[in-house]
């Protein structure tokens, strides 16, 4: 039987939702591996809406579930209905929506809170020993919830290629072990069944990011 994999989205668009290329790569690689994706998003207001041309917030108000449905082509469910019992794995793509809508990492960093629904889902998969795939900024969720876990967001030294490397330092302060990696690589925390890759935390060609997410998907499905 095909593996059933929950994919949790955080809106639509890199600056205020899920990173669209990452979400698309997840779905492409799941399809290629013969797995069945089931998409979910919390039915909550976005923190704010960003004009992606200007890179600035607007007065608009949007809903995370409604916006995520754009990526899901309408085939998406309220995160509150997710039942871990019928699923084999969990994937959370990156994008600022993870840090703005699924948590408050964007404004509070290591002192953030995580959406109760999102935390509940992560803890449920973890307790069931089912694998969790995290890319780009989404490993911060695991760092906050599972002290001592091992993840990667790429590198911990900021430079042109790694502009968000300070994220790794904040994660270390939470008691997480950060493992430096290249964009094409993943890190597997076998004890916690976490698979992570840096994706757009790195300034890399889009095909390399796509390939790194593919490596993450294969490891998640191997563990499922």
From TrEMBL:
<dbReference type="InterPro" id="IPR029062">
    <property type="entry name" value="Class_I_gatase-like"/>
</dbReference>
<protein>
    <submittedName>
        <fullName>GAL3B protein</fullName>
    </submittedName>
</protein>
